[in-house]
Amino acid sequence: MASIPRRYGLPVFALCSVVMVGAAGLIARQVASVAPDGPTWSLAATGDAIITRRVSLYDDPPFLDLVKVIREADAAFTNLEMSFFNLADFKGYPQVEQGGNWFFAPPGPLEDLKWMGFDLFNQANNHTTDWGVEGMLETSRLLDSLGLTHAGTGMTLGEATHAGYLDAKKGRFALIGLATTFTPMSMAGDPRPEVKGRPGLSGLRVQRTYQLEAARLADLSRVLAALRRPVPDSATESVQFLGATFVGGPESKVIEKTNPRDEERILRAVRSAAKQADYVVVTSHTHEPGNSGTEPPQFLIDFARKCIDAGADTYIGHGPHQLRGIEIYKGKPILYSLGNFFFQNETIEPMPSDMYENFARDSETLAGDLYDLRFSRGRSGHWHMSPESTIGVSPGPYSMSPVWYETVATVAQFRGHGLVELKLYPVEMGHKSPRGQKGTPRLANAQKGKEIIDRLTRLSVPFGTQIVFENGIGVWRPSKAGATAQQ
Ligand SMILES: [Zn+2]
Question: Which domain holds residue 211?
Answer without folding.
Answer: 207-255
